[in-house]
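Appendix B, Record 12. Input sequence as logged:
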Amino acid sequence: MRRALDIARGVIHRPRVLFLDEPTIGLDLPNRKKIWRFIENLRAETGMTVFLTTHYLEEAADCNRVAFIKSGRIVQSGPPHELVGRLGAFVIEIEADDTDRIVADLAPRLGRAMMDGERVCFRFNG
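Logged structural output:
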C-alpha cells in the first residue's frame, strides 16, 4: 500500500490542508476503495481539508465540491449534484467496428443512438 504510506507521510505533521495529485491512479478497485476510506477517515478524525485531482468521475461525485479546469482556469465549480444539473446533457461516444450490435445492446438502456460510421453516440440528460 505504497500510496497509503505516501499519504500518511504527508499528514504526519498534521497539516490543516492536504493536496493529493491523483492518489488512486493505476490502482485496482479494491485498493482505490481502501485509499478512499483512509482519506475519509482522515478527514473525519482531523477535520483536514483535502484538495485532490482525479480523472475518475465516481470519485469526484463523492467530493463536497468539484471544479473543472481548462487551460489552468476554473470553468465550472460547485457541489457535484449542482454541476450535473448545470451541465445538462451527457454524451457517451463509442467507436467500434460492429456499431449495429452496440446499438442493439445499449439502446434499450440508454435511449436513441446517433450513428456515424464506426461511431455511436448516446445523449441523455443528467
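The mean pLDDT is 84.
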